[in-house]
Request: fold
Amino acid sequence: MFNRVSTPDPRNVEPIKSITPQPISPIKTSTPPLFGTTQHHSTPAIDAPTSVLGQDITIAGQQLVIKTKGSLLIAGHIQGDVHGESVTVGDTGSVVGTITARTIIIQGEVNGALKGSSVNLNATSRVEGDIIKQTLSIDEGAQFDGSVRRAKDSSEVTPDLG
Reply:
């Protein structure tokens, strides 16, 4: 008849706080805190949100081209070309193919060409391929095997976002 299950005293229960969504501010640094490397380089703010290809994603295909008009963070594995405003290959990410973007940040592994207005190889990066750039920074500890040349004009490093 009577049950000795304790029920919480309603006088001691905290009221439920309402959760209001916070606006997403533009990305102002090139390294998302999610992937753990401290970076001292910054990129211009981008109005579009960042798309993330997580660690558990592998994308492969013949003649594959991934295009984004915003910012892309690659934590998984891509076999194909990538075009975007800003492309970051995270610590756990890898790309086999050409990356063309205004801003390219490499923390992981790339086997292919990099074509960008601004190219940054972080200390954890491993790149095998040629770089065509307007500006380039290579952090101490980065592994790079290939050639580097300055773009003859901006069309050479402009991504195809159409």
